[in-house]
Amino acid sequence: MNTFKLIKNLLKYDGETISLSNDFVTKDLAYFENFVKNLTILLIDLSKLSDKGYVNKPNVDLPILLWFLKELKLIKSNSVTNFSIGINTFFFNLVLLLLLNTVLNIEKHCLLKTSEEGYLDLKTDLSTIRKNLLRMIHPNFRDKVSNRGLSIILNSLVGYDSEYELNSSLRKTNDLLSIQLAGSTGLVLKVPLMDERPVTSNYLNSNLTDNFKGDEKKIGGIFCTSIEKVISDIRSVSCGDNDNFIKRLNLKLETLGLKSFVIDSYKVYLLPKSEVKSFIKYTNEYTSKDLITDSDSLNNVNNENSLLKIICILNEVCGIKELSSRMRNSIKNSSNKSLSRITYKYGVSRLSITINRILTICMHESAADLSMLKDFETFKENLDIVHRSFVTLGKPLILDGCKSKVHFRDTVLLAPAGVKSLAGVGSIYGDEFKKIDIGHYRGKMRELLEYNKDLFEKYAIQDSIITLKHASSMEDFYLSVNKIGVPLTLSSIGKSYVVKE
């Protein structure tokens, strides 16, 4: 109990809120070192408590909340009130937040004296305590005080198709003639929104924190008001620069006329998709590794340019006129990794940027095109089957040597009833996306290649372009129901729409 007196000495109740009672700016190194020592011991005691404010070990009797409320004269000294889990949860997190605010203020004081002997070690100890406190705070409150960065998705979409000719109807084998790819890239920028919801009794979205009743109503109100105030204080100390920067960034992005959506706790901006690149390879042998490598490399330059555009926008917001060689290298490296992080420095502050590189390979009738892969029998074990189509469910594939996380989609699962064929899908988008008519050469692709290679290429590449177009359109529509990526099936879009409504 002695260590908990440290908290009591730090707290005061002014009739409205519970807050810190000390001004640490005037203290000296010896005071801070003693404080850190006591706080380290205190964290060990606090770790005995669950996030609901109760003692984890049943053989320990530690009525923390009742004792504190009596010490702060919020209840009578002879009270024996039993408090709910909800009220304990709020007080436990209020204490943690107040301690975090204390640590942040001391750290700020230490920054001014890092050159003085002893302060560097103190700063290291405080950093450890700060991280431990953040781990103990309820996730909903932790989100409110966290310095959230930007998230970028380098989003490549590729339509894949193959041309082949029947080798043996008896053995059901085909000879591969060519594969063709058509791809484009986009960039998704996720800018964090400030959580401006007021802290109320049901803020934690738990049955444990339903509206406080009876004697708890007044005390619960004090806790909620106190938590809001300390969160505001914490953000002003640790997040003030980033909050202002993100506000200015949003204003800049809005002037650019980019498409935007609000998804979860982010404002999502879309850079325009790049022009379509097409690619044809004449081969009688093709592997899954070839497919993924060719698809992944199709848009390397576009991915790098897209990331460069975002960094240039950030520089504009900050008033930085030149791109440093170090940042250029970071852009190049990050655009060629499946997952990376850039630390963007402006003034004395930093902004974390997380970058995911995603590749979605789309086919129409995936069973036919993937079966042309030499290693299909082994590769298909990495895929899932939905209505006889090969796709990836859940997490993407992460493969050695690939710069992206890879999803597979089949556009036949996204085709409306009555237009399941690729020709039908293409007709949805007008003459530009109609299948090429090859007349009597249908079923004679080797002959077409031999006598009219230009027509063969137009026909083959157009199939991959139609697949890409439909997948891209479905991806755009999916955003209207607050989802990112190419949906799996039409029914999955419907479910998301119902949830949104």
From TrEMBL:
<protein>
    <submittedName>
        <fullName>ORF1</fullName>
    </submittedName>
</protein>
<keyword id="KW-0614">Plasmid</keyword>
<keyword id="KW-0812">Transmembrane</keyword>
<keyword id="KW-1133">Transmembrane helix</keyword>
<feature type="transmembrane region" description="Helical">
    <location>
        <begin position="80"/>
        <end position="100"/>
    </location>
</feature>
<keyword id="KW-0472">Membrane</keyword>
